[in-house]
TrEMBL record:
Organism: Sediminicoccus rosea
UniProt main location, coarse: cytoplasm
Family matches, as NCBIfam families: hutH, PRK09367.1
Name of the protein in its database record: Histidine ammonia-lyase
Gene: hutH
Primary enzyme class: lyase
SUPFAM superfamilies recorded: L-aspartase-like
Matching Gene3D superfamilies: Fumarase/aspartase (Central domain) (1.20.200.10), Fumarase/aspartase (N-terminal domain) (1.10.275.10)
Length: 500
């Protein structure tokens, strides 16, 4: 896989996606100079004898407690150990890859007071695919993603655990030895620099962002298939309609749907004499709904791209040689982006579920009830639609904003928190639900198109239909539905639908 190279602070969304998917990372030359400048500022501040938060003081509510010079290294190690209080299942490996890369790139900007050895060790773990075991739960998205980043950082000092590419788990010291590294002794501020920051919530949200974009494209394909299966009109996708509104996502989705349906003989067969004046909203309003979802996804992408390039620990070593305390660790932008993605995911699934309901209803679709002949003896897609409804209902519940649910921590020192990590974590199950709904629509729309033979759909839809029929037979009589849904899910992960 091609190595990704960028200057710290200048990566783009495709760079992070490639790293998530296994690409190695090299930071562009020059970052060591920035790190050296930051370290010089830190050393000067320490020499002044001033109280420096988290460097020679305690943390959070204990910030007024001064730490003796001889205990500064112990302070940083204690920080990692005490804050490794996470719980739950470990984060997926692609997400941990992102966290390592995000943290390395942030520290490489030189504002955090971490030595080059810290950055190099993070990158070495990433390159070897020796990934720290990071429990998913335990961060409220303020003061940084403290607990999960503590678990990740313990490996750098030879503690904690990491799992290699063969899924063998090693203690921290063994993991480092396996990649030719020795455990690090933390310098002043390095523990705090590692734990402070929004890299965990950002990584989880980035992973969900990429999935949301993929699912939206898959939904355009299944939605176009449903239009032809229901003998719907392509008039609602006329560009003149969408130009009058001017919403950019709507215009792009309408164009994509027109391209997907172009040349359909099924559509041509009912241009004249069709007594229906307008289709139900789930067919007709796809540009308006899916376009709004596209705009939300891209808005969230902009926020997350900026956050991925940011320095979000505290205090920060800034131009002019000062050490300033602030609040960049507060992950409100990530929380809002995650909540936005949740809305988009919920709506992508909701409108797709309505199309499934339409296709299985003979009154609305004109197709056999539940898309099967000999109804009664056969139930066809009856319960598949129920499954889709259950998944859509789950997503509606999970779409409730998390960012407004602040819960004070650290004896009210951290009295407003973002809940960004919770906001991001719920996106993965939501994406799984959407994928299940779209898989059912894929099956239902393909079944509906089959009833129109010998008429054919467009080239794009016929290709998608053929891919499905290569692994899933038509539904001639009742059989197990679950294997068909699983097969359709797998195919939808590789869908490519251009969006201008």
């Amino acid at each position: 896989m091609t190595c990704i190279t960028f200057a710290a602070g200048q990566a783009r969304l495709p760079d992070w996606r490639a790293i998530r998917d296994g690409a190695p990372l090299t930071l562009a030359p020059g970052w060591r100079d920035d790190v050296a400048a930051g370290l010089a500022t830190l050393e000067k501040a320490l020499a002044s004898g001033a109280a420096l938060y988290g460097v020679n003081t305690g943390f959070g509510k204990l910030a007024s407690t001064r730490i003796a010079e001889g205990d500064l290294a112990k302070l940083q190690l204690n920080l990692l150990r005490s804050h490794a209080a996470g719980t739950g299942a470990n984060l997926p490996r692609p997400v941990v890859r992102l966290i390592l890369a995000l943290k390395a790139a942030s520290l490489a900007r030189g504002a955090s007071g971490a030595r080059p050895e810290i950055v190099e060790t993070l990158l070495a773990l990433l390159e070897a695919d020796m990934l720290p075991d990071v429990p998913a739960q335990g961060s409220v998205g303020a003061s940084g993603d403290l607990a999960p980043l503590a678990h990740l950082s313990l490996v750098l000092v030879g503690e904690g655990s990491a799992t290699d590419a063969q899924h063998v788990t090693h203690g921290g010291a063994t993991a480092l030895a396996a990649i030719g590294r020795a455990p690090l002794v933390l310098g002043p501020k390095e523990g705090l620099a590692l734990l402070n920051g929004t890299q965990v919530s950002t990584a989880i949200a980035l992973d969900a962002l990429y999935r949301a974009g993929d699912l939206l494209r898959a939904a355009l394909l299944t939605g176009a298939m449903s239009v032809d299966a229901a003998r719907g009109s392509d008039t609602p996708f006329d560009p003149r309609i969408h130009a009058l509104r001017g919403q950019p996502g709507q215009i792009r989705v309408a164009e994509a749907l027109r391209q997907l349906l172009a040349g359909s003989a099924i559509r041509d067969s009912h241009r004249e004499g069709d007594i229906r004046v307008q289709d139900p909203y789930c067919l007709r309003c796809q540009p308006q709904v899916m376009g709004a979802c596209l705009d939300l996804i891209e808005q969230a992408g902009g926020t997350l791209e900026r956050e991925a390039n940011a320095v979000t620990d505290n205090p920060l070593l800034v131009a002019g040689g000062e050490l300033l305390s602030g609040g960049n660790f507060h992950a409100e932008p990530v929380a809002f982006a995650a909540d936005t993605l949740a809305l988009a995911l919920a709506e992508i699934g909701a409108i797709a579920e309505r199309r499934i309901a339409l296709l299985t209803d003979p009154v609305l679709s004109g197709l056999p009830a539940f898309l099967v002949q000999a109804g009664g003896l056969n139930s066809g897609f009856m319960i598949a639609q129920v499954t889709a409804a259950a998944l859509a209902a789950e997503n509606r519940a999970m779409a409730t904003p998390r960012s407004v649910d602040s819960l004070p921590t650290s004896a009210n020192q951290e009295d407003h928190v973002s809940m960004a990590t919770n906001a991001a974590l719920r996106l993965t199950p939501m994406a799984e639900n959407v994928e299940g709904i779209l898989a059912i629509e894929y099956l239902a729309a393909a079944q509906g198109i089959g009833f129109h033979r010998p008429l054919t759909s467009s080239a794009a839809i016929e290709a998608a239909h053929a891919r499905l029929r290569g692994v899933v037979a038509p539904w001639d009589e009742d059989r197990l539905m679950a294997p068909d849904i699983a097969a359709a899910r797998a195919l939808l992960r590789d869908v490519e639908v251009p969006l201008a």
